[in-house]
Predict the structure.
Amino acid sequence: MPKVQAIPYRPVFLFLFIFVIISMTASNIASAGDDRSIKGQLRKDIQSSMEEYIKKQTIDGKLYVFDAVQNELLTLTSGKPRPGIVKDGEFFLTCADYVDQKGNKIDLDFMVRKSGDKYITTQTIVHAVADEYRPYHVRDRNN
């Protein structure tokens, strides 16, 4: 009986495993949303507007946000702004991660729009609860 040479599957398996991990990581980074063309002073102004809004809305270390999907008032702590900014219609969206009263991770998006020479944060959107994302678009839905 002739000897059959085994095909070395471990290097192929290792390559595929690494490829899948890198692909998953890259797609998560892309879905986080960050338009790199928004830079310099514009980026600083948008982030400053969000941080000022959060500071004004925070009471005794807690940010209160109504979650219309769950019909529940969220009491949020441990806020951490993220650097990502995207443009959606007339608004810029920037985000921060919080923890609610149940211990769930809450991803908030903040709507920022230019008014005169200032950027003003107008509203907070619950974008994800416990990593369950909710798709939305701010731009005109008739288009």
Notes: The first strand starts at residue 58 and ends at 59.
